[in-house]
Amino acid sequence: MYKNTILQMLLLAATVNYGSAANILVMVPMPFKSHTINFQPIFKELAFRGHNVTVVSPFPQKTPLPNLTDIVVPNIMTEFMATLPNSSPLDMDNELLQLFGFWAISLIFSPKALQLEPVQRLLQDTDSKFDLVITEAWFIQEPFVAFGHKFNAPVISFMSAFFFPLPAHLTGNHLPLAYAPHIRQGFSDRMTFLQRAKNVFLYYWEVIIGSTFYLYMQDANMREYFKYPGSENLPYLGDMLGNVSLTLMNRNTAIGYPVPLHKNVIPFAGINVHGADKLPADLQKVMVNAKDGVIYFSFGTVFNLEMLEPFMQDAILSALGKLKYKVLLKSENSSILQNYSSKNIVVRSWFPQSAVLAHPNCKLFITHGGIHGLMEAVYHAVPIIVIPMMTDQRYNARFTESVGIGVRLDRNTITEELVLEAVNRVLHNPTYREKIQERSAIFKDQPIPTMDYVIYWIEYVIRHRGAPHLRPAVLDLYWYQYLMLDVIAFYTLIVFLIIYIVKAVLCLICRTLRRIITKRNCKKDVNKSKKE
Predict the structure, then answer these.
(1) Spatial CB neighbours of 64, under 8 Å, sequence gap ≥ 6
(2) pLDDT single digits (tens) 49-85
(3) In Å, what is the CA distance from 233 to each residue of 129, 150, 169, 223, 244?
(4) CB distance 367 to 384 below 8 Å
(5) Residue 76, phi-psi category: left (phi > 0), alpha (psi -120 to 50), beta (remainder)
(6) Which helix (H) or strand (E) holds 460?
(7) In the chain, how long is the greatest CA-to-CA distance?
(8) What is the pLDDT of residues 276-285, one digit of tens each?
(9) Which of 6, 317, 427, 459 has the smallest count of CB within 10 Å of its CB?
(10) pLDDT tens digits for range 218-242
(11) What is the pTM of this model?
């Protein structure tokens, strides 16, 4: 097996064309830091391999790199948060807002990003030439796919989590709803009848309303701000999204339920997961001196503990203060523990997360269930407690529980007792450690390094000029053709025609027999009359 792996790596290296540098435009101007930071190693690797990479984002490289040019746009996260109800992402977490909320926010916020001066300057650029455009078109920033039309270049889109229904539909990957749960719901792949009914409704709601309303509104936004020579020939936004050459999905077989995907979707994961990196000296001392072990608590870059309602914060902080373990608590508020027992808790605004989870003394990770943190925990085989906030975090929490690598807690019903019980269960039941070690082995079992795999497919699209052969024909079918309604109607007509013909023949036979019998009876009656 080892020899086969080496051979595959050598074959991959042979296929990579280092002598042909491409000009690549990366359009990620939205202020979604966790998304952009996760993909940045790919941009740097493309530059390292000789491609000329131009990255439009609010998060430039800290150290300039050869072949990589940062076009820095303003970080408009404050304006983005202002579009949310009460300026908190958690206010989006209800059934009604799930149906409309993200679309409404995108329709308000997309124009703000499209108006940014560096974006408009690039639209008016008539000198630059690009061989490829990379964007994150599938996460409420669909209009940026039009940069492919602007520069007459194929488009690759990142997907930071598993598919939402509309991107799945637009890439031709119509999900099997009997066992593929909606990414925003806390369902497993073994759904009850009512869950499957809700799954179907939510999926087709997003596909139908998204296609007939949302995309038309985004198309109008695109046409208002995409003004350049040739923009009068801009295709419909939905058509351009349907022609995205490749989707690179942040997903691994170890994390998420198995579903079939077409060749125009390439899953990858762990691109930003590091090994046992060296910790800062003071943090290393804390980790080593924790005789009972360390629990790491973080809600990521967007969410924080202070967003929760007071009773939720109280339940978590009270429980953490009563543990014998050292707790590393990520929080922007250094005084968050002033009303709690906190001798065992270290509060900082930032921790080197992957390095903390890689330390052998880290026993448990308490998280909101973001996909990147989940990947790091699985990679480093650290059991998990998930307190999901919204969107795919419910999906991740349910998956964590269903495969036995952790437990989930509902923030709306959380209590100190439930937190303590969950911690004790995960840490003292060896099954959780065994299960996550199994998942870690699956995560790491890749035929070639993940970075090489991703770069191969990006260069594949460049080499094959958009690789249109990867595009499934389902994208050219009408909905009734995909659902085979015309074929069903055809065969139904044939069945009814056969039934009609058989019925007509039988009726004819019956009438003929009836006439023959009637005629014979008449003859008998006549003969009888003559005899009488």
Answers:
(1) none
(2) 999 999 999 999 988 899 999 999 998 877 766 666 5
(3) 19, 10, 25, 10, 18
(4) yes
(5) alpha
(6) helix 450-463
(7) 130
(8) 678 888 999 9
(9) 6
(10) 999 999 999 998 899 999 999 999 9
(11) 0.86
